[in-house]
Specification:
44% of the residues lie in helices and 11% in strands. The chain has helices at 10-31, 36-43, 47-59, and strands at 64-69, 79-83. A two-stranded antiparallel ribbon has the order 1-2. α2 crosses α3.
Length: 98
């Protein structure tokens, strides 16, 4: 019996399936700033996946945390609002410190 769990192409297939979801999250954040749960409702992508995509997109410099606010879906206060619009990225004060 052949073991299909060690298929080297399995990760490539999974990656191709996830790319459209990550693109959907990025496009939604370029259109409107949202929390993760708002993204979940807006895009239909599970929040658990959105969490991973947000982390990756922040590391790539494609999105940023705009501010903290109350989520319109959960009602939780002090949650991150993310944006993919570079005009809304927070201004960096790092150079002004010295």
């Amino acid at each position: 019996m052949e073991n299909h769990n060690n298929n080297p192409h399995k990760s490539q297939v999974k990656d191709k399936q996830l790319k459209p979801q990550k693109r959907l999250v990025l496009d939604a954040l370029r259109e409107k700033s949202m929390t993760m749960k708002e993204l979940d409702i807006h895009t239909g992508v599970m929040r658990e996946n959105i969490c991973r995509y947000v982390s990756e997109l922040i590391q790539m410099g494609l999105i940023a945390i705009r501010r903290k606010r109350k989520c319109s879906v959960t009602g939780h206060s002090n949650v991150n609002e993310y944006t993919g619009n570079p005009d809304l990225f927070p201004k960096c004060n790092q150079l002004n410190l010295f």
